[in-house]
């Protein structure tokens, strides 16, 4: 939350730039509305027009800027328009820093990163035009639905880690990984956003030293102490975000004032995840705990290493049945065998033939599974395509089915199909809620 001083800084910067860049429009507004003051959105809209954008609404406002929904007037596309101000108005060096951050963010091209299209300066302000994501943040998603099942949480964070690994591959530290900076699209895909305080280990390895920036609830101890950061500092925040996805709260205690909380961050004091949620698999608890270790050397070396371990956990962890957030139920081996038997029974004569085939080849190939499940997959995909694009649960199911097919994970495909069947049945006419 921004302080009154921050709000004043933003308003003063807007007013100053407004009177130098939009004097004519301000005068016309005053003539039309008398003494009625301009709203924040009126001011931002006037300045955004100078950069070629039509403001459609305000998505959020902080001490050093705001995020607007806007339309690119030249290209006709909807964008998220981030408005930033410099703490040192009129300082060429400060504006150069904002430009450098824009260049770093726009250089990243990954399916799980919100793309930065362009940046524009208007007086002391800078506008970032970014990809518009139709969805909600991970923070909103978890706050709306509650803590996630382990597999869903790992799936989302492995995608976010894949995006962060691309940044690490370019020598960039994000420095502000948190649930609010991971978007979940309507199709259930995670997208990492807001590289506003990113720094480069290649250009200037000591750039982060002495700077305490980020979000306290997800900040690594060395970041809170103003020390030089490494990729392991981002890994700490990834683990903290996974903690949030699994519990609905941050790993840090929110009790006390800012200085007291900062001291807890510096000491690496976190609440053990098993004390908040007791039903988590022990291997998942160990994974989260190790990557929240105050000693950076004990964490994964970078986001790529974090992702690989998260994906290994996905292969071995199954969500418990009956859980409120366990969207996908794991089928038994008997259910899997029955599906295969339906397919094999159509090819081989008699039960003895099926048993003989299973003895020779106990697990079917990808091609055989694809053929056996093709009718149900086509039916499920047609139904998913017919559902409202605004339904988050449908988007998550569609994303999980797509990912499972892409990865050849037929056990997971069967889970997705089973859950889709249950949702379809619940929506059938005459079905009692």
Identify the notable features of this structure and list them briefly.
433 residues; alpha+beta; five-stranded antiparallel β-sheet; three-stranded antiparallel β-sheet; 51% helix; disordered N terminus
Task: Give the fraction of residues assigned to helices.
Answer: 40-55%
The fraction of residues assigned to DSSP E strands is 5-15%
What is the mean pLDDT? 78
Q: State the shape.
A: globular
Briefly, what is this?
The chain is an alpha+beta fold and 433 residues long. It has helices at residues 4-21, 23-33, 40-50, 92-106, 138-145, 150-169, 221-224, 231-247, 258-267, 273-276, 282-291, 303-316, 333-347, 350-360, 366-386, 392-407, 410-426; strands at 53-62, 65-72, 78-85, 116-122, 125-131, 135-137, 172-173, 182-185, 190-192, 199-200.
Describe the 3D structure.
By secondary structure, this protein is of the alpha+beta class. The protein has helices at 4-21, 23-33, 40-50, 92-106, 138-145, 150-169, 221-224, 231-247, 258-267, 273-276, 282-291, 303-316, 333-347, 350-360, 366-386, 392-407, 410-426, and strands spanning 53-62, 65-72, 78-85, 116-122, 125-131, 135-137, 172-173, 182-185, 190-192, 199-200. The strands form three sheets. A five-stranded antiparallel beta sheet has the order 1-2-3-5-4, sandwiched between helices. The chain has a three-stranded antiparallel beta sheet with strand order 6-8-9. The protein has a two-stranded antiparallel ribbon with strand order 7-10. The relative contact order is 0.08.
